[in-house]
Write a structure and sequence with these properties.
alpha/beta; Glutaconate Coenzyme A-transferase; single chain; 9-stranded mixed β-sheet
């Protein structure tokens, strides 16, 4: 069976269920799977654990699943720019596992690489290390962190070929590639689909062996999180 699906809804057919864990790519508002998230909302699955660097922003990205109360727990690094995320956590309706950003990325990478645990100095002596084993290596303390894996990874790439090989652009490459390796099923929405062999093998960021389904994105809004401008200098 081919990996190319006709629509975001078709690409998610048969893989969603209540209580599942979903990894959702993106860094800030860059590289969010904008076309797949609305279909998860429409499907109505609930009690979700979502692993993502952040949860979008007001009215965008994973905010949609927070607004519909489909997310039970977030495993994230950044809560800022999302008042709904903050409010649900403060009022106790959303469980949050907050991670240092590098630790979150490495936990996901470890899940994709089949490494159950690793040690890092980040967070030692803080609330991050509470309840976790701490060991000393060469005179320095390190906290043990465990891998992260998911039932489903949804990612957004710039380009894919029909074999599922993916290319990401710029900031979208921050979390999407590692998440693509750590899901039992990985669905990639992309801006362009080309024939197998059209992409130089040296340019591929995520090999197709990690990607189960590919769909052409229907939403490519690409919002700017904070627009900063300055007056144009006189000629």
């Amino acid at each position: 069976m081919g990996k190319i699906y006709d629509s975001p809804a078709a690409a998610l057919d048969g893989v969603l269920f209540d209580g599942m864990t979903i990894m959702s790519g993106g860094f800030g508002l860059s590289g969010n799977p904008e076309s797949l998230i609305p279909e998860i909302r429409k499907a109505g699955v609930k009690d979700l654990t979502v692993i993502s660097n952040n949860a979008g922003a007001d009215g965008f990205g994973l905010w949609m699943l927070l607004q519909s109360r489909q997310i039970r727990k977030m495993i994230s690094s950044y809560v800022g720019e999302n008042k709904l995320f903050e409010q649900q956590y403060l009022d106790g309706t959303l469980e949050l596992e907050l991670n240092p950003q590098g630790t979150l990325a490495e936990r996901i990478r470890a899940g994709g690489a089949g490494i159950p645990a690793f040690y890092t100095a980040t967070g030692v002596g803080t609330v991050v290390s509470e309840g976790k084993p701490v060991e000393t290596f060469e005179g320095r303390d390190y906290v043990r962190e465990t891998w992260l894996r998911a039932d489903l990874s949804i990612v957004k790439a710039w380009k894919a070929d029909t074999a599922g090989n993916l290319l990401f652009r710029k900031t979208a490459r921050n979390f999407n590639p590692v998440m693509a390796t750590a899901g039992k099923v990985t669905v990639a929405e992309v801006e362009e689909i080309v024939e197998a062999g059209s992409i130089d093998p040296d340019e591929i960021h995520t090999p197709g062996i990690y990607v189960n389904r590919v769909v052409l994105a229907t939403i490519n809004e690409k919002r700017i999180e904070k627009r900063t401008t300055r007056p144009r200098e006189a000629a």
